[in-house]
């Protein structure tokens, strides 16, 4: 067996979720090659070469890969797919975007969001918003997997000494182009890797009221998330959504504020170590999964919490 | 232009499914079924494009059991002009569905395919991308805004870091995210009219595709259950518990 891991990055820094994907690759077994595709991504390739357990890094540095357009990246991965038995990517919006294209072009099945490796052919994954865990098996010689980052403890960033090979394959499908992006700027930790997450729901009332969560977050070094209801209502942008179709988080501490606890939200956070719920409705379903529940008006409880931290 | 909207019949999103006692799957007997919510958003987007005069014909398609005709009728009540059911009682998986859809695309030659980014049963998030690859089309996944102009489609995508906009040549595949639109409800007169709209039934054999699953489900289990903890009486007690009992702050 040999595994190709697609590195998640922004052309400057290797995203830590890649360490979790390498951890999944290690459980599968065999040599691990990491592909870094981007533009001006040499530093990322150098970082990937140091990751524990990686035996080789392929660096495809070209204009065509700058914005990770699925059409170009998929064609590149297919070109390099050669003898790899498993092709892995993080279940991020990048991985979810190009990986199924790779699978289809290789006529290989994809298993999405694996949460556990049973053996090289058998994996566990959540279905129905995490209300069931399926153990699935695929005997095909080549398979594509996306990996749920929060389900695997990342390998060490240092310790490896892989060689870096540059790849001069240029795949520009010419059918899609990048127009622009609006990326959230925040000094707070990233939602999916933060130790503490504090999230607000519909109960926050409006976007300005999230300010009280930001204050608490800054004292705790926490990331701030939101329920779908809060995003749909326009309180906060989509990149803050935690849930079945948003981000999956599993911090040490998750504080749900003014969130009722729809199953779609629980799907995104119920693997958190400790869950706190603050809600004025004592019947809210969120209390059924919370380790500590506080029935209170959030506009009194959160500022008080802020003052006591 | 013609738009193809693939849809899926799934468990209603309000239903909390139960795992069968023999761990062979989830219990779908007597459970309310509905159109996958992301597919409703796809139908709505197609209808809005038609209302804007961009789209002239909307064809809904589903691959699944006979009962999926209900969801196709719903799509037609919402504004689809006609529909196709590729009928099969076997389990279907994204790669097989994408192959069947590719065959439909070859027949129908739509300029745009709009479908949900994922179905809320399997949570796979694969079919649109696979179809795009098989059909050699570009893709705009997780769309929160779609603009068709000058033979191209501009798609704003919800990505982990925020929003990204891409421009795709046509024909193209777009997969819908939650914020793309708010689907309308079908009116009674439109539900009545939908009963008279054409619904073609085909078989996978008609399309010459093999839908045999490539991934087998060994077992399905309940996730580790989280039990409710304690209610604390005050913020002071909460801070104390987090510091001294859970030791997480």
Could you explain how this protein is built, in words?
The complex is a heterodimer of chains A (309) and B (249). With 309 residues, chain A is α/β, with parallel strands linked by helices. Chain A has two domains: 2-166, 3-Layer(aba) Sandwich (Rossmann fold); 191-308, TPP-binding domain (Rossmann fold), CATH 3.40.50.1220. Chain A is built from eight helices and 16 strands. Chain A has a seven-stranded parallel beta sheet with strand order 5-9-4-1-2-3-10, with helices on both faces. In chain A, helix 7 (263-269) links the parallel strand 14 and strand 15. Chain A starts with a strand and ends with a helix. The mean pLDDT of chain A is 97. Chain B has 249 residues and is α/β, with parallel strands linked by helices. Chain B is globular, with a radius of gyration of 21 Å. The chains are: A alpha/beta (309), B alpha/beta (249). The interface between A and B is large, with 88 and 79 residues. Strand 16 (292-295) of chain A pairs parallel with strand 13 (230-232) of chain B.
SSE run of chain B: EEEHEHEHEHEEEEHEHEEH
Number of domains of chain B: 1
Mean pLDDT of chain A: 97
How many beta-strand elements of chain A? 16
Beta-strand proportion of chain A: 25-35%
Key words describing this protein structure:
heterodimer, A: 309 residues, alpha/beta, Rossmann fold, 2 domains, 7-stranded parallel β-sheet, 5-stranded parallel β-sheet, 16 strands, globular, B: 249 residues, 9-stranded mixed β-sheet, two-stranded antiparallel ribbon, 29% helix
Gist?
Chain B: Its cofactor is AMP. The complex is a heterodimer of chains A (309) and B (249). Helices cover 26% and strands 28% of the residues of chain A.
SSE layout and pairings?
The complex is a heterodimer of chains A (309) and B (249).
Chain A: E1 2-6, H1 17-28, E2 31-38, H2 42-50, E3 56-61, H3 70-80, E4 86-90, H4 93-106, E5 110-114, E6 116-119, E7 122-127, E8 132-137, E9 143-147, E10 163-166, E11 176-183, E12 196-200, H5 211-220, E13 223-226, H6 228-232, E14 253-257, H7 263-269, E15 274-279, E16 292-295, H8 298-308
Parallel strand pairs in A: 1-2, 1-4, 2-3, 3-10, 4-9, 5-9, 12-13, 12-14, 14-15, 15-16
Antiparallel strand pairs in A: 6-7, 7-8
Helix pairs in contact in A: 3-4, 5-8
Chain B: E1 2-7, E2 9-11, E3 33-35, H1 37-51, E4 57-64, H2 69-78, E5 82-87, H3 94-108, E6 112-116, H4 127-135, E7 139-149, E8 152-159, E9 162-169, E10 172-176, H5 188-194, E11 199-202, H6 204-207, E12 216-221, E13 230-232, H7 235-245
Domain Electron transfer flavoprotein alpha/beta-subunit N-terminal (chain B): 23-211
Cofactor (chain B): AMP
Pfam family, one (chain B): ETF
């Amino acid at each position: 067996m040999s595994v190709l891991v697609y590195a998640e990055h922004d052309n400057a820094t290797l995203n830590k979720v890649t360490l979790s994907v390498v951890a999944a690759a290690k459980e599968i077994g065999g040599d691990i090659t990491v592909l870094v595709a981007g533009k001006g991504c040499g530093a990322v390739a150098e970082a990937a070469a140091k990751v524990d357990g990686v035996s080789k890094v392929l660096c495809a540095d070209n204009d065509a890969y700058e914005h990770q357009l699925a059409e170009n990246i998929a064609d590149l991965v297919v070109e390099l797919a050669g003898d790899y038995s498993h092709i892995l990517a993080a279940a991020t919006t990048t991985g979810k975007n190009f990986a199924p294209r790779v699978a289809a072009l290789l006529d290989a099945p994809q298993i999405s969001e694996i949460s556990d490796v049973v053996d090289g052919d058998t994996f566990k994954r959540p279905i129905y918003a995490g209300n069931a865990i399926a153990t699935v098996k695929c005997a095909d010689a080549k398979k594509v997997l996306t990996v749920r980052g929060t389900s695997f403890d990342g390998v060490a960033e240092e310790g490896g000494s892989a060689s870096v090979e540059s790849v001069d394959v240029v795949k520009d499908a010419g059918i899609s182009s990048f127009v622009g992006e609006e990326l959230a700027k925040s000094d707070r930790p990233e939602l999916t890797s933060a130790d503490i997450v504090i999230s607000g729901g519909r109960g926050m009332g409006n976007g300005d009221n999230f300010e009280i969560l930001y204050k608490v977050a800054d004292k705790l070094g926490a990331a701030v998330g939101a329920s779908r209801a809060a995003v749909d209502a326009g309180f906060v942008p989509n990149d803050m959504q935690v849930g079945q179709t948003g981000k999956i988080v599993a911090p040490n501490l998750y504080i749900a504020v003014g969130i009722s606890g729809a199953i779609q939200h629980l799907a995104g956070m119920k693997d958190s170590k400790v869950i706190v719920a603050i809600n004025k409705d004592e019947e809210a379903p969120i209390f059924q999964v919370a380790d500590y529940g506080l029935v209170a008006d959030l506009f009194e409880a959160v500022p008080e919490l802020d003052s006591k931290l | 232009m013609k738009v193809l909207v693939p849809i899926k019949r799934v468990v209603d999103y309000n239903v909390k499914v139960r795992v069968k006692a023999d761990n062979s799957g989830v219990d779908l007997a007597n459970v309310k079924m509905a159109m996958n919510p992301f597919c409703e958003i796809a139908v709505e987007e197609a209808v809005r494009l038609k209302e804007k005069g961009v789209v002239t014909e909307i064809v809904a398609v589903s691959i699944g059991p006979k009962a999926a005709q209900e969801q196709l009728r719903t799509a037609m009540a919402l504004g689809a002009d006609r529909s196709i059911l590729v009928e099969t009682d076997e389990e279907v998986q994204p790669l097989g569905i994408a192959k069947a859809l590719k065959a439909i695309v070859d027949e129908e030659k739509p300029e745009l395919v709009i479908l949900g980014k994922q179905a809320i049963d399997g949570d796979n998030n694969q079919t649109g991308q696979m179809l795009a690859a098989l059909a050699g089309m570009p893709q705009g996944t997780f769309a929160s805004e779609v603009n068709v102009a000058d033979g191209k489609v501009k798609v704003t995508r919800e990505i982990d870091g925020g929003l990204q906009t891409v421009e795709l040549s046509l024909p193209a595949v777009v997969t819908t995210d939650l914020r793309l639109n708010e689907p309308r409800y079908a009116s009674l007169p439109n539900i009545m009219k939908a009963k008279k709209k054409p619904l073609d039934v085909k078989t996978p054999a008609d399309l010459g595709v093999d839908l045999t699953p490539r991934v087998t489900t060994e077992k399905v289990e309940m996730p580790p259950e989280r039990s409710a903890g304690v209610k604390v009486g005050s913020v002071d007690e909460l801070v104390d518990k987090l510091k001294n009992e859970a030791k997480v702050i």
